[in-house]
Resolvase/invertase-type recombinase catalytic domain-containing protein (Virgibacillus dokdonensis), 71 residues
Amino acid sequence: MKAVVYCRVSTDKETQETSLIRQKQELVKLAAEYQLTVVACIQEQESGYSIDRDGIFKMLEIFSQKGQIVY
């Protein structure tokens, strides 16, 4: 099965940058444990308040591609 990794922090502070790296590492590791193939890794430094975020739209685009993701 395929998976998309989505990592997000709410600010662009330097400490948040390491959080993005940790999130990606942990989620890629988790995907491997479940034998999932990561087809995309989306990272954002945006507030979660708004759903109008490029990363969300990129995920939806990937999901809409027939046969790309099973969820």
Notes: The longest helix spans residues 14-33. The chain has a mean pLDDT of 85. Strands lie at 2-9, 37-45. The CA atoms of residues 3 and 41 lie 9 Å apart.
